[in-house]
Amino acid sequence: MVAVTPYGPVITQRHPPITSAGAGLIATAVIMPVVATLWTILRVWTRKIRGVSALLIEDLLCYLAVLFFWGLGINYMCMVILGGAGNHLPQLTGGDYLMRFSQTTFAAQVLYALTLGCTKMSITWMIKRIFFEVSHIWIPYCLMVLNFGWMMQTILTGILICRPITLNWDPNARGSCGNQTVLFSAVSIVDIVTDILIIALPVKMLWGLKMRRTYKIAVVCMFGAGLLTIAFTVVRLYSVFTLDFSDMTYNFVSISIIGLVQSGVAILVATAPLLRPAIDRTVESCMSKNSKAPAGFRQLSESEENLRWELDVMHAHKGKTLTEVSNAGHSEGMHEDELPSGQIKVTQSTQISRG
User: Fold this and answer.
1) 207-252 per-position pLDDT tens digit
2) Cβ distance 198 to 266 under 8 Å?
């Protein structure tokens, strides 16, 4: 006879049923990594448009973050399919579900730290390269050390919270665990502090750059989108404080979804400030299909502006863009019969110096 709990009969089949909560976690674990991957592909395309290597340090860190993010998503799928996440704990006492759930929970803590840690390091490294002169280079380096410290704090909290370590997933092991609410709350608090510092780091310097005010506001908003990650961290912190560990398999689903969305948004924020050329190219392509302009006409893109970070990618400290407009038929080295009559030639060049 199958035992009955207040939530229904005890589950005994090899794979526990997928509840609506579990299905929501699986959907999030698929959608967010896919979106982050597509966003990262746009990052690579932008580098190609600019003729810049897509293997800068901040790029490599971003790629690692996406890789770990996929690992996190797959781990959460296993948590639902094999560990019964989304079902109530009393229903999962008839098999190895709790051990599988605990193993995936342990792995999730490590993968979550690696995903966000690499993302934070990517953003900070980009900010260092773009905005900081040699005399102040210690500021982002200090923040990188703090980010690395948070990543290690998160990983070690998951590893050392229970002694022996097997107690994390083996309910029959003998030992003791620390105060999970306090320790995991400390992780979220330090996470919030590092996010605030990362967002505040470039704002003052960004506002002082010489660029159109509308574009300046847009870029500030891109960095400010990091406030969303802080909002998700605050919600996650509240969820940890109010988490009922007596029904962990059910209540942990909401925290997992929040962590996935937080990590995905962080990866989007790490890439968003670099995507202007790709966006301009796409908009230009769409407009050209509907444009009544003469064949061969190409409107100059605003992304050709002399932006500080574009020069810094080339390791230059000073630069200016020159635009020359001339009759195409009378340009030096060009015969009049090479282009149709009436066309003009626009030559744009960027002069770069290191002084």
Assistant:
1) 666 666 666 666 666 666 677 888 888 888 888 888 887 888 899 9
2) no
Backbone φ, ψ for residue 257 (5° rounding): -65, -45
Q: Do the Cβ atoms of 310 and 277 come closer than 8 Å?
A: no
Sort 328 into a burial class: Cβ within 10 Å, 0-12 / 13-18 / 19+: middle
Write out the two tokens for 49: 């448009």
- Per-residue confidence (pLDDT) for residue 324, from 0 to 100: 55
The token pair that represents 193 in the structure block = 């502090």
- Is residue 247 within 8 Å of residue 89, measured between CB atoms? yes
Assigned CATH class of 16-279 = mainly alpha
SS (H, E, C) the chain: CCCEECCEECCCCCCCCCCHHHHHHHHHHHHHHHHHHHHHHHHHHHHHHHCCCCCCHHHHHHHHHHHHHHHHHHHHHHHHHCCCECECHHHHCCCCHHHHHHHHHHHHHHHHHHHHHHHHHHHHHHHHHHHCCHHHCHHHHHHHHHHHHHHHHHHHHHHHCEECHHHHCCCCCCCEECCHHHHHHHHHHHHHHHHHHHHHHHHHHHHCCCCCHHHHHHHHHHHHCHHHHHHHHHHHHHHHHCCCHHHHHHHHHHHHHHHHHHHHHHHHHHHHHHCHHHHHHHHHHHHHHHCCCCCCCCCCCHHHCCCHHHHHHCCCCEEEEEEEEEEHHHCCCCCHHHCCCCCEEEEEEEEEECC
CA distance 240 to 234: 10
The C-alpha atoms of residue 207 and residue 271 are separated, in whole angstroms, by 19
Residue whose token pair is 């860190």 = 61
Both structure tokens of 285: 């392509």
Q: What one-letter code names the amino acid at 8?
A: G
Q: What's the one-letter identity of residue 320?
A: K
Q: Residue written as tokens 């299909």? A: 289
Specify the pTM: 0.77
Which whole-number Å values give the CA distances from 147 to 58, 88, 152, in the listed order? 14, 36, 9
Beta-strand pair 162-163/176-177 = antiparallel
Tell me the β-bridge partners of 231: none
Task: Specify whether the CB–CB gap between 316 and 130 falls below 8 A.
Answer: no
Residue tagged 């925290």 (tokens): 255
